[in-house]
Write a structure and sequence with these properties.
Blueprint: H1 3-12, H2 19-25, E1 34-42, E2 45-53, E3 59-65, E4 71-76, H3 79-83, H4 86-92
Antiparallel strand pairs: 1-2, 2-3, 3-4
């Protein structure tokens, strides 16, 4: 089963909230645009990783519980983080 099919099954089974519902919870603080979205699972926790622009125009990476809609973590996105380079991330922070 590919990622899209797995995400659709979780949604159809009522395990996760629709992405639209999640985004609507935070439209005041994070008006968009949405740059990237992933549905991930770790230690039985299902969460959305959403790269979205905040009110100040800064792209944030939100980690949101896909079941409850609660933000678990919010971090400013840097180009170095997106590339996965620890050396560049240190130089930009």
């Amino acid at each position: 089963m590919n990622d899209h099919d797995q995400a659709k099954k979780l949604l159809d089974d009522g395990v996760v909230q629709p992405l639209e519902n999640i985004l609507n919870l935070y439209t005041d603080q994070y008006p968009g645009p949405v740059m990237d979205i992933k549905l991930e699972t770790k230690n039985k926790l299902i969460f959305y990783k959403i790269d979205i622009t905040d009110r100040d125009g800064i792209v944030q990476t939100l980690t949101v519980n896909a079941q409850s809609g609660q933000i678990l973590q919010s971090d400013p996105l840097t180009l170095a983080k997106k590339r996965g380079s620890k050396r560049n991330a240190t130089a930009t922070n």
